[in-house]
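Tokens for chain A. Residues wanted.
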């Protein structure tokens, strides 16, 4: 005896039809990406393209890593108009017209950003997979709070996971950057 095919739910059929319709329409997404060496990138993208894939595949900014694709790990963190966001949770079309700072654009004129330098000097990285997201989260923290405590640094990094370092060296690196940035302001 063979089972009769299950009837499709009308709501699921409408949802599938809507997805097919969206997929068939390419949209343009135009962002200023990079950071210190801004470049305007305007490409046709499928409406469902995640910002992380737009940056990596269309813009060739591969420093933004694809980790969990569920916003848990933070490897895909970028600055969107100065705000740290996880690019695996945003569609590229949502970033249309925005400034996106990736790890590639944090250094200026070949000089590392203080947070990047801190990671180098304080051994804040091991395998390097989480590093771009950690650095960008740290850079945003120091924009908001130039003199954070270790506890405030740890709290700011809660959305970024590292499986190698145990976080102590990462916190040291951001403290290093805060001190260096304070000296520059004098």
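Reply:
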């Amino acid at each position: 005896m063979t089972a009769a095919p299950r009837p499709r739910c009308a709501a699921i059929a409408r949802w599938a039809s809507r997805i097919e319709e969206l997929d068939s329409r390419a949209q343009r997404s135009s962002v200023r990406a990079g950071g210190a060496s801004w470049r305007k990138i305007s490409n046709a993208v499928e409406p469902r393209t995640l910002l992380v894939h737009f940056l990596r595949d269309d813009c060739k900014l591969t420093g933004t890593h694809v980790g969990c694709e569920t916003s848990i790990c933070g490897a895909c963190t970028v600055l969107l108009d100065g705000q740290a966001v996880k690019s695996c949770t945003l569609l590229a079309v949502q970033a249309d017209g925005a400034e996106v700072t990736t790890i590639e654009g944090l250094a200026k004129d070949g000089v590392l950003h203080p947070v990047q330098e801190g990671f180098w000097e304080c051994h804040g990285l091991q395998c390097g997979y989480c590093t771009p997201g950690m650095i960008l989260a740290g850079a945003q923290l120091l924009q908001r709070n130039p003199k954070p405590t270790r506890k405030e640094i740890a709290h700011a990094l809660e959305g970024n996971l590292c499986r190698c370092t145990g976080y102590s060296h990462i916190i040291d690196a951001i403290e290093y950057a805060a001190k260096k940035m304070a000296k520059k302001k004098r």
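Residues 168-185 form the longest helix (18 residues). The longest strand covers residues 27-35.
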